[in-house]
Amino acid sequence: MKTKKRNKKWVILFLISVALIPILITIYEVIFTDDKSVVFLGNYNSKIAIIVISYYVLLLGLGVYWFIRQLIFIAKLKSEQSKVKLMLLKSQVSPHFFFNMLNNLYGLINKDVIKAQELILKLSDMMRYSIYESENETVTLKEEVDYLKNYIELHKMRYHKNIVVDFKCNIDENRRVAPLLFIILLENAFKHGVENLREDATVTINLTSSESNIKFTIENDFDSSENLKKKPGIGLKNLKRRLELTYPNKHSLLFSNTENTFNAQLTLN
What we know:
The chain has 8 helices and 7 strands; from the N terminus they run ααααβαββαββααββ. It is of the alpha+beta class. The relative contact order is 0.08.
């Protein structure tokens, strides 16, 4: 850091020196010679005039170069800051889900070995996707849908009650999207809906894609009296921040609810 500061100091001194040379030449000509012209370079020898002009052109070029370098540096710095923020937000996605699954696995080992093995495989696949695929800027919609379906199946294995999940897809499977955006809305549907309902737990999901946008809609039943006791989590806050970083001015996130149903709609343009 100190070396960079010293280098900048010498660059500034050099630029000042370059700027002063033609000015000093002009002052010398006016004071110590008979050349009293007030016109800049008016009676100068053509060679001297070319040298003086060249100095100013060089100075202008160096100034433009320095200015462009500063703009590039600032752009890179902002980009790196955004990436760091994005990675931090990604790292906070669904930790409670994995903790709950591990607790379930511990209870299943001595009761149902086959079911425990199936849970381990699905959980392993989800963790691999969360850790490795989330490092990519985009994934295919098919990969994202498979991840969501694994999540749904694992939740169905957890609960000892009837859960109806209607997942409709009408997508271009090769269309690409930022990873782990939809899972936060799905998590909320289970956390605030399915977990609190003793029966008639229903989640309806619709995912569509077109040339202009990708639309994810999810609706779940919930117990309004139970949800009043819960404090808002960081999931939606993180989702909003990620959308701002990944799809600036190219997304909409809308929420609506009735007495017993909650609806969320995410559109990526």
